[in-house]
Design goal:
By secondary structure, this protein is of the alpha+beta class. The chain folds into 5 domains: about 10-85, Orthogonal Bundle (Arc Repressor Mutant, subunit A), CATH 1.10.10.10; about 90-150, Beta Barrel (OB fold (Dihydrolipoamide Acetyltransferase, E2P)); about 155-220, OB fold (Dihydrolipoamide Acetyltransferase, E2P), CATH 2.40.50.690; about 245-485 and about 565-615, no CATH class; about 635-715, Beta Barrel (OB fold (Dihydrolipoamide Acetyltransferase, E2P)), CATH 2.40.50.140. About 30% of the residues lie in helices and about 30% in strands. The chain is built from 18 helices and 33 strands. The strands form 9 sheets. It has a 7-stranded mixed sheet with strand order 13-20-19-16-15-14-21. A 5-stranded mixed barrel has the order 3-4-5-7-6. The termini are far apart. It comes from Cryomorpha ignava. Its main location: cytoplasm. It is found in: Cytoplasm.
Amino acid sequence: MGKKKKHSSKTRDKSKGRKAVNLRGDIMQVFRDNPADIYNYKQVSARVNVSDSETRRRVNEYLNELVDLQMLESISNGKFKLHPSQSSTLQGVIDFTKSGAAYVKTDQLKEDIYISENKTGFALHGDTVEVILTGGRRGKLEGKIKSVIKRDAEQFVGIIEISDKHAFVLPSNQRVHVDFYVDKNKLQGAKNGQKVVVKLLDWTDLDKSPFAEVVSVLGDPGDNEVEMHAILVEFGLPFEFPENVLAAAENIDVTISESEISKRKDYRSFPTFTIDPEDAKDFDDALSLRKLNDDTFEVGIHIADVSHYVKPGSIIDKEAVNRATSVYLVDRVVPMLPEVLSNFVCSLRPDEDKLCMSAVFQFDIDGNVKTEWFGKTIIRSNKRFTYNDAQNIIEGGDGDFKDEILQLNAWAKSMRKQRMTDGALEFSGIEVKFNLDENGKPTGVFHKVMKEANFLIEEFMLLANKRVAEHAGKIKKGAEAKPFVYRIHDLPDPLKLITLKDFLARLGYKLKSTKPEKASWALNDLMNQVKDQPEEETVKQMAIRTMSKAVYTTDNIGHYGLAFDFYTHFTSPIRRYPDVLVHRLIDAYNHGKKYSDLDELDKLCKHSSNMEKKAADAERASIKYKQVEFMLNKIGEHFSGNVSGLTRWGMYVELEDTKIEGMIPLNSMDDDVYRYDEKKNQIIGTKYKEIFEFGDKVRIKVNGADLILKQLDFRLI
């Protein structure tokens, strides 16, 4: 047996200079070529042609790093093999950035997979895709798109540009990274510069634009109806009901028979009222309160019994499933249910008999719950309060049901205090509202303020949601768990908490713990630190980004943000489909029935979570549009604001009075050459060393307002 041939000095020099990204890729290729084999770092080093000690040390580091990324699996004693997830393609949802690069989120890995701009294939934003891992860089996974499994959208909104021979549609959504080619015989009468909806027809050549046809001409950009409809289409949301659904809703039998009443508890004679926003029409919930004896009170939380009118599998139910939620844009509500149901039949309007699903509790004088009951009722609301009406009573004014409102408010404050003690999070952000003229144009901006009347309703809705979930979810000895719909909120990401801590330190604030189980107290303490400070809203938004998203599921893990072990959504079935499911399940279990199709229930949960996100994104887009529209006639005017974001391309500023945000491009700051220091999170002038950081007060001039991109351009003055 001969001696192993030594590597030449030329080879050794090459291995020393090898880039990290190439070395990681070479290491992964060894394991992909031999998916069943096990190697240690010396064997891997030999296979990638590395012999010097320094690079072999790096090989060992990268092997452990690839284990953390779940690309390799550590067997024992420094031995590694290909992770099971790497032996085939992975499936996930692609999320494009404005630059054209993307990330794929997959349930199979903890980390998102980065996809460079030239490796996204035929995927479009939101598609479900197959992705092949190609390596890692800077501790991040990288991959390329193999195929598109399912399109997230077939229709897209954009501005059409028509020339003599052809037409292109430029998407309004900046995350849709391609323009669409439209034959001139498929324009549907669209005129140059109009906003249209196109349907994707074909895309087989990456060097060419996808082929599409115009399916709807929305109209001229800037028109309120056009823009609101465009936002709904952009996020895959409907803006009108099919005729057959409207007809079915009109034909629903709304009579309440004596036979139906006999199956329910009758609460029509008890003091009952609703408290809702000024402009609300869909009254989901009502409260009743009566004194049973000197130390015992009965509180009824009565919720519209949508499930009585919307039967599983009916045409109305199928439409409600598809929508899953009502959508709240700046100037309108796009309801989950046809208006005849949402605003009339199911709405708990005063002086009308209404069918409900109720959560009824007996309280002692100190606000402790002694007994509970859940089931079908009939009620008759005596009074419709707005939040302002109820707040006036709480603050000392007179009004109907004053004693009841004050007693309920006292208990609500006690329940809220206990939740905070138990570790519930309190992120009370600013909600932007607009005054609109008859054409939908914004004439003013104001901010919704949460007061005690809002918290009163919130606490009793939380109580009902929590206790309903406990009622269904707690397993009695010897019993099996019942399928149910839970609203869960996972622990925050510890890495994001560490990043937040570092960010806060640069601002002079302290996050006292980065342990997820202790983070709620640390974050609430942080909110107290930043209260009434210029950077308060910025810090809140950064803190919120550390949080997981609350979702619907059949697998309960509790709700971290509320500090509840069991939680569901029971109280808004007019506007949320999961609440309808919960009502049906509670009624079925009350009658000793079983629900066996857990897979179908889980699919409905995932769909509802997805539609909830789309609705929230659409709401934010409509707010941003109105903010930009509001500033159109203020170009050239000066305003005070606070620095709310820093990037390598610009400095974001939030205006003090309106909370409207715009950006100052760094290249427009011409008194010096400014650079973004990522470590210090500052923008620094290279010559005069002027520093800008979060929360700094600045004066700006409005330089431009782009309605198409929903962006404001500021200049520093």
